[in-house]
Amino acid sequence: MAIDLPAELTGLRRDILTMGAAVEKRLNNVLTALRTQDVELAQTVRHGDRAIDEMELDIEMKCLHILALSQPVAGDLRFILAVLRINNDLERIGDLAKGISKRILDMCENAAIQIPAPLLEMSERSGRMTAEVLNALADDDAKACRRIRQDDDRIDDLQKEVFAWVHEEIPRDVNHTESVIDILSISRSLERIADQASNIAEDVIFLVEGTVVRHSRA
Amino acid sequence: MAIDLPAELTGLRRDILTMGAAVEKRLNNVLTALRTQDVELAQTVRHGDRAIDEMELDIEMKCLHILALSQPVAGDLRFILAVLRINNDLERIGDLAKGISKRILDMCENAAIQIPAPLLEMSERSGRMTAEVLNALADDDAKACRRIRQDDDRIDDLQKEVFAWVHEEIPRDVNHTESVIDILSISRSLERIADQASNIAEDVIFLVEGTVVRHSRA
Q: A111 in helix, strand or coil?
């Protein structure tokens, strides 16, 4: 049974970009909800990740189908392998966004707390890294991906700043403990989102150039 | 350029099991260090994950090489795709073990704290899940993998218990805050290790049966 490989690959590219756009929208919503403490917006992200799960399964099935029925080589094979991985990374970003929405809803129930500046910067940067890597995927832009990977260092520094803030904040007022821990937890999720965006950047570099850059500074 | 596919696949199986054993050893060491507060043992895990990173790259290169030079189908293709994913999951477990070792070293510098029972149980279970899933991989045992996936629910409950403990412990003595947060952080890492073990279980089911069980209870 033969398949029309170019048509399948075009469909796959469209699907992974659609999945990326859906995940990016959920991430943007949760980051806005974090900044504005918008309970309703957080609730839209708390629920409704089933569509993302279904897209993930659908894309995975299509990749396996193509691999099973045709013998893609070189660039086509790399594209399918990269899509399998990116698909997984996007689903994780969606999951992390959902986790953040739960924390925001928790925080809104507890004593009000001022969100620390490094967390806001993490939120802004991890959202931007995700948006940029999806653009780079659409444009096959390996150069942009190398820049995105470097942004991850700043995220790690910000995570340390949030950590220091937590250590100061807790003894200052133990009634805030729950919200402080929610903020710590959100910072971890943002760090992981930035990590996933970096992983996608590595996959795009692999896809475009055939180079594996993991564990390197290249 | 033809390759000897059966020989390559046998080699790949040996390599992924060797990688699994190396990661399992590091995980066991860090879990023992956690239980016994053994600084020296924690330090062995803090350093020396380069060997794991190199194994990961080597296995990935071999998979890509096989995919590029032969046209594996059906079970062989599934095996290679599963190995690519398991390889990645194992490397993450190694990374998480390293992260835990840093926390243990931190904790040993601060005020002594009694490790809460749910954390010890999480540590014991996540170590066992990892060991069991590696045995299941060696034995192509999809049935064991279904059981392993279910163990993940108990881990989530334990994580909630650690969370509750943190909320009680911090107001009790704010001097312990740093160690309490280290424990919270270790619990998150253990939860992620159990998650990765579940992912590997899903990959083994896929490899053996060709069924994708992600997002399902099957």
A: coil
